[in-house]
Amino acid sequence: MNRKISRICFILIAVLVSFCMPDMIFAADYSKTLAKWSRQQTFREPGSIGSLEMKVIYYSAEYVQALIEEEAEKNLWTADEKENYAYQLLKTLNMDEMIPIYVQFKNNGPSMHMSPFDEQVDLWAGRKKLKLVDYDRRFNFRLQGERDGLIFFPRYDEKGKSNLENVSSVKLSFNSGIHMFIRGSSVDFIWDVHKDSPEAFYKGRAATRLELDRLIKRIEKLNAEKRDLENKLNELNNELSSVNKRVEELQKQ
């Protein structure tokens, strides 16, 4: 009887392990993919107790997909919950217009003074230098301890051409003046992006919601422009009426 119970327990454990193993493998794969797009550097000054740690993450299509899948698996989300998370994430990252990068500073050394922050960092797409379009304004304040946030570079130039077209790698460069521990002309982080294709995200339900958001904003903008034009037309009509009236008065004299 004991042997029979032991055998049943062994079979149940084996079944449970067979179900769990794929999830464990997938989780490991997600972690590997997420780590692939993360970069980190640490700076120390001889004789100093503290250090400066810098961590950056390039939001590639591969990274974002792995992040969505990992969160969905970890939280046991339904398909709708997963879709909603993808929508909120893509809305925040604005990847169809911007190149988003996550930046984290852990400064246990002398205080950092990076204002204006948009003059301290550039993104090199091949030989083209891209300037910040938007960033977390907290990076402009004195920094002691930990701070993180998103920074954004333009995905397209003024003519609508992709800044990443035919580009094999990008380099994020911080001015060495952001901290006294840094030696050299800049702090660089490099990613291979030639296979990155975020366009794939802008399909499906999340993409439909994002497009709807954009169209609603476009309608609001066009309505505002329409009101301005109508107000201008009314001003012109009033002025024209006043001028015509004066002309008639002069002609009667």
Task: Label this structure with key terms.
253 residues; 5-stranded antiparallel β-sheet; 9 strands; alpha+beta; 2 domains; 4-stranded antiparallel β-sheet
Strand segment tally: 9
- The general outline is extended
- Major β-sheet profile: 5 strands, antiparallel
Mean pLDDT: 87
Radius of gyration: 28 Å
Query: What structural class results from the helix and strand content?
Result: alpha+beta
Note the run of SSEs as H and E.
Answer: HEEHHEEEEEEEH
Separation of termini? Answer: 125 Å
Kindly report the oligomeric state of this protein: single chain
In spatial order, strands of the major sheet run 1-2-3-7-6
Percent of sequence in beta strands: 25-35%
Helix content: 40-55%
Domain module tally: 2
Number of helices: 4
- Poorly predicted residue ranges: 8-28
How is this structure best described in words?
45% of the residues lie in helices and 25% in strands. Helix 3 (79-93) crosses helix 4. The strands form two sheets. Strands 1-2-3-7-6 form a five-stranded antiparallel sheet. Strands 5-4-8-9 form a four-stranded antiparallel sheet, with no helix packed on it. The longest helix has 49 residues, at 204-252. With 253 residues, it is α+β, with helices and mostly antiparallel strands. The protein has two domains: 21-197; 203-253.
Sequence-ordered SSE layout with sheet pairings:
Blueprint: H1 2-36, E1 38-43, E2 52-58, H2 61-75, H3 79-93, E3 98-112, E4 121-125, E5 128-130, E6 134-135, E7 143-154, E8 169-175, E9 186-192, H4 204-252
Antiparallel strand pairs: 1-2, 2-3, 3-7, 4-5, 4-8, 6-7, 8-9
